[in-house]
Structures are given as C-alpha cells and as structure tokens.
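Design job #97: recover the sequence.
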C-alpha cells in the first residue's frame, strides 16, 4: 500500500479559504479517521484525495509520486459516499460490478469477486434486486461492496453510516472494524461522530475550522488532549469545563470557583507558575467525580477537595446514572454508579482526584 502524504495542501473557494495549508501523513495500511464538527473541511480533504476537488496549493503524494494531476480513476482509490449514489435502474450485482465492467475485467472474475464481497457483507441474497427494493442499511452495504470489489489500495469513506438508525449503525461499525482487521488497505474515514472515530481509528485526526487540532491514537487523544477543543470533543459524555482561580495555600495548589475548591496535582506547579495569570479553565471528565457519602464519618477524603453539585436531571441507565447538575451557573455532567435512581433537586458532594483534573490556558485553550 502506498504511503499518502499531504504536503502544504490548501483549498479556497473563490476568496474564501476553507483549508489553510496543512501537512498530513497517512501511514501504510492504517485506518485513519478524520473527525470534526460539520463544515470543518473533512469532505473537502477527502475529495481532494480522491481527485474530485482540485487543490488550491500544495501536493498530495503516494509514496514518491505526486498525484494531484491524476484523474480520479487513475488514483487506485475507491470511495463510499454518504448518499450511496447507486444506479436505480441496475440490480445490485450490476451496481457492484460497474467499475469492474468499465475496466473490462473478465466476466467470470467479476462474478466471483461480487459474490465473495456480497457474502462478507451479508447481501448475497439481494444481488438480483434493485436499490429501490432495499432498506437504508442494505443500500449502505451495497455502496460499501461496490467499493470493496475494486480491490483498490486505498478506501475512502465519507460519513457512510450517518443515514442509518442507531442499532444498525452500531452493527455496521462492528463490521467495519472487522473488515479493517482482515483487509490490509489504507482506509480514510470521515465522520462527525467521535464514537465512530474512537472505535474504528488506528489514528484519529481531529479537525475544527479547517485546522488540524491534533492527531494520535484514540487513547492519546483521550488521555492527552492538546487543547480544550479536543478534550471536549473526544469522550462521551463530554468533559466538563469550569472557570477557576488558582491559589497557593500553604504549598498546595487549590483551584477555586463558585461552589468548589479543588486540589490540583503538585506536578502542575511548574506549568502553572509559567502562566501570566491565575485564572484557568479546569477540565473534568464525568467519570472522575467520586460521590462523598455525607453521613459516613470514616470517609477518607480531604475537605480541601470538594465540589457541591445540584442535580437537575438524572438519567438512570441501570448500572450507572448520568447526572446533569449545576455548579453555580455552570452545567456539570457526572457519571455515578448507583443502585437506585437519584432524585432531582438533590445536592451532592463529590471529590475529584487531583491527577484527573486537566488545566487549560483560559485564553488559548491549550492544555498545560
Ligand atoms: P465537512 O465535510 O467537514 O462537513 P466540507 O469539507 O464539506 O465540511 O466543507 C468545508 C467548508 O467548505 C464549509 O464551510 C463549506 O460551506 C465550504 N464548501 C464546501 N464545498 C464548497 C463549494 N463547492 N463552494 C463553496 N464552499 C464550499
Ligand atoms: Mg462532509
């Protein structure tokens, strides 16, 4: 498989710069996910790679070969579009074999390739039907199958699951993950859904406003987000952000805000002292809160790390609950393991382990 390299690639529509110059390397055989909110430039990036959109500057390389001058059909790429783009008058077998017939692949080989792929995707019994006679999920698989029969070195997917209902989406996600493990192909997958990104990607590229915010493994993005945007975008429920002022109290760092005083990790001292201000943004994952039983006197907790949260809505999910709470005027989401539902309006106290609290520069959003 070729290694794909974007070198100072940029894109403008008229005078509007959608993507300022950026570099991006996609390693051989890797499943890369481009994820970010709608309008951030994911499809544009993918379409430039496929040859459906011209570059405004820079070059895309396949190993040491520049490809921006090549027609889409000469790029050894197969693309699955969000809207499937199936031919309504052709049956499924002919839809899937369309590109192979154009390439004049022998009939027997076409039949064999279509059937093998159809079997993998569980659509073997649908080959004689027309697209209009299929459900959305089945059409989605055909669109995927049409790309897979081509045996290209690189597969591009543009939000292929976004039209499916939640259950089918989860199923297709699993199938894709399985496919990723069995095919040794370059795959570039675009989605706005961070769960899809986390479950499918070997490597995730997070984009916002036309800029690459960070790239890395799912674990790296979750544990070491570069900035507030990535921290808030990756993980579900989302990270909570609280404005706070850092105060040194007898050598220990306290972050104080409306309704809380939380102890910070001593390891943060150097980074914090380099800041010009004491005002920071704290980031706390919903799973980092530890409920404090007020009655129990033996609770091993220091009173220098407490936050009081008033429950607004409690989403009871069985094994755990997600509490939507308020701390002053800020909304805070908390994951608790609870045997029974927690009543709304109740105020609860939580401790937050200092090492789980992330600190962001209030101005730039960069994580300290
Ligand atoms: P995403 O796929 O991340 O939702 P797109 O790559 O489709 O985003 O679009 C990125 C930006 O480029 C958007 O602001 C969009 O409005 C703009 N854009 C996309 N296509 C065109 C076009 N043909 N003409 C002008 N602007 C466009
Ligand atoms: Mg798009």
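Job complete. Output follows.
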């Amino acid at each position: 498989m070729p290694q794909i390299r974007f070198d100072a690639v940029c894109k403008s529509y008229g005078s509007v710069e959608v993507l300022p110059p950026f570099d991006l390397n996609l390693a051989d055989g890797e499943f890369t996910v481009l994820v970010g909110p709608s309008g951030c430039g994911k499809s544009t990036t993918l379409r430039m790679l496929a040859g459906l959109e011209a570059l405004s500057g820079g070059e895309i390389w396949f190993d040491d070969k520049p490809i921006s001058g090549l027609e889409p059909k000469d790029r050894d790429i197969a693309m699955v579009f969000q809207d499937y783009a199936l031919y309504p008058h052709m049956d499924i077998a002919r839809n899937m074999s369309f590109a192979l017939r154009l390439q004049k692949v022998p009939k027997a080989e076409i039949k064999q390739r279509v059937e093998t792929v159809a079997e993998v995707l569980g659509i073997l019994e649908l080959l004689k039907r027309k697209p209009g006679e299929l459900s959305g999920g089945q059409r989605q698989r055909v669109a995927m199958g049409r790309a897979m029969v081509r045996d290209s070195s690189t597969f591009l997917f543009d939000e292929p699951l976004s039209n499916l209902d939640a259950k089918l989406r989860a199923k297709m996600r699993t199938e894709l993950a399985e496919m990723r493990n069995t095919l040794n192909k370059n795959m570039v997958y675009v989605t706005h859904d961070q769960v899809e990104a986390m479950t499918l990607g070997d490597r995730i590229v997070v984009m916002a406003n036309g800029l690459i915010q960070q790239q890395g493994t799912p674990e790296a993005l979750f544990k070491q987000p570069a900035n507030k945007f990535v921290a808030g975008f990756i993980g579900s429920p989302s990270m909570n952000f609280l404005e706070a002022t850092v105060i040194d109290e007898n050598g220990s760092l306290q972050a104080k805000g409306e309704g809380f005083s939380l102890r910070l990790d001593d390891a943060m001292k150097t980074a914090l002292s380099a800041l010009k201000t004491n005002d920071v943004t704290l980031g706390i994952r919903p799973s980092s809160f530890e409920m404090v039983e007020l009655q129990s006197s033996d609770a091993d907790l220091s009173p220098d790390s407490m936050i009081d949260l008033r429950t607004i809505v409690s989403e009871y999910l069985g094994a755990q609950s997600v509490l939507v709470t308020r701390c002053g005027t800020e909304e805070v989401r908390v994951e608790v393991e609870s045997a029974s539902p927690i009543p709304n309006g109740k105020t609860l106290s939580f401790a937050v382990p200092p090492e789980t609290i992330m600190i962001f520069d209030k101005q730039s959003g960069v994580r300290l």
